[in-house]
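Pair request: fold both.
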Amino acid sequence: MMGTMIGNPALDYVGLVLRSRIASARAAAEGEGEERQFGASAVEWVVITLIVLVLAGIAAAVIIPAITDKAGAIKTCLNTSGTSASCLPGTGTGN
């Protein structure tokens, strides 16, 4: 098996696809004529894949903490039987 597995199936898959595209780009870049054109196309796909991965990482970095914070607020409201003022609609963290 090539490369290191991250442990997250989705990230492992993305890493596998990315390594495959890079290998295809390298192989095609060594050819001539039509094969060389395929290499340029493969490089474009690698760049597009990298951009998508960066955007997904940024989105995850923003969304995951927000969800975690909201889950903590809900847990607090449930533990206090919803009697806390912050659990009322329109107030505090229970919004």
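--- second member of the pair ---
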Amino acid sequence: MLGAKGRIHDERKNNLGWDLRCEIDGRDRYVEVKSSRKKGSFTMTRNEREKLTKHKNNYMVIFVSNVTGHSHKVRVIRGLHEVAEQFAVKDFLVTQREWGQVEVASYDMETDWQEG
């Protein structure tokens, strides 16, 4: 999306089912940010899952794993609505088995995001 124009709205406190709403060239995108001390799973609320299935490809999850370790991984997960029915019901646990089935861009914080 090089050259795209937009705005980012912090909506974490509004309980809308996403953390950020990004207006890009007049179109809304919804971003939920998740983190885990370990590598594989994160939890979504019922509201987040409902919004994920409603907004489909306009909803993405940014998942930061291993947040307490030295090698953080950041994954941008799109298309998660395609496997939402497979989430475990306990607060909708999303394991790597589910998010591994959809489009994921992965970044290693030590090697990919060094300041320079």
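Observation on the second member. The chain has two helices and eight strands.
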